[in-house]
């Protein structure tokens, strides 16, 4: 890069030189002096910023985001390089060429930063995130990385970001639509299954009759002892009862209670077989 700029400067300065003339004692004309000064200025200017430029290149390659700080660094590098050039050469045309070359190299770093910013925003993007917010983040990062007064443009990277975001959102919308349809269909199938299940249960309850039940009861004559047995659903229940003597007048001739009173209290024993 430095060699290319040096050759360009030399070509501009050499084009302005007068035809070569032989100077008796080895002197040089003014054009040669200006060309030499321009080359010294170029070398001095580039050397003063080369380390900083290489450092930023390495950091960008390693993924450093440089949020809001790269523009100020570019300002410092540009001012330092121009100052070093002017200290060796004050030719306006040579200075303009140097500034153009330095600005072009800084713009290259700027475009690398913008491209990395676009990739980072895409990696962090979520379909639920508003499109305008991502675009605004990119624009803020791109503007913050510009050198003051530089005519750098990030429209191409911004357009690429918008195109990718549009495609990602379109895919997310299609996936969401398919998922919603699948969920609705599954819910419909579940409701239909539950309806069929309820109908089957109702049908089973209608066709199934109550289990048969057999019951027998016997009272031992002239005693307080009564025995009853019940058979239902493969289960037998035996009940042994004994009514106290003081309640015997309440019973009829066949042992049935004539009324419900506190005297109708006895002992009952249930045996389940």
UniProtKB/TrEMBL annotation:
It comes from the Eukaryota. The keyword Signal applies. Keywords: Signal. Residues 1-15 form the signal peptide. This is BAR domain-containing protein. It comes from Chrysophaeum taylorii.
């Amino acid at each position: 890069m430095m060699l290319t700029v040096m050759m360009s400067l030399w070509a501009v300065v050499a084009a302005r030189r007068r035809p070569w003339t032989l100077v008796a004692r080895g002197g040089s004309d003014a054009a040669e002096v200006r060309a030499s000064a321009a080359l010294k200025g170029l070398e001095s200017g580039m050397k003063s910023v080369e380390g900083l430029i290489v450092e930023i290149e390495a950091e960008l390659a390693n993924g450093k985001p440089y949020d809001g700080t790269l523009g100020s660094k570019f300002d410092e590098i540009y001012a330092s390089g121009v100052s070093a050039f002017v200290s060796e050469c004050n030719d306006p045309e040579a200075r303009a060429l140097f500034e153009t070359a330095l600005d072009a190299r800084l713009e290259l770093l700027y475009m690398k930063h913008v491209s990395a910013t676009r990739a980072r925003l895409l990696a962090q993007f979520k379909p639920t995130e508003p499109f305008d917010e991502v675009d605004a983040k990119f624009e803020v990062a791109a503007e913050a990385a510009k050198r003051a007064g530089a005519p750098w443009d990030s429209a191409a990277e911004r357009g690429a970001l918008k195109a990718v975001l549009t495609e990602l959102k379109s895919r997310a919308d299609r996936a969401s639509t398919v998922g919603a349809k699948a969920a609705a269909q599954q819910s419909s199938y579940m409701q239909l299954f539950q309806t069929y299940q309820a109908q089957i249960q109702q049908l089973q309850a209608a066709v199934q009759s109550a289990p048969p039940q057999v019951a027998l009861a016997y009272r031992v004559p002239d005693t307080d002892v009564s025995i009853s047995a019940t058979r239902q659903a493969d289960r037998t229940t035996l009940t042994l009862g004994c009514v106290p003597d003081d309640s015997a007048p309440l019973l009829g001739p066949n042992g049935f209670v004539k009324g419900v009173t506190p005297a109708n209290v006895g002992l009952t024993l249930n045996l389940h077989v």
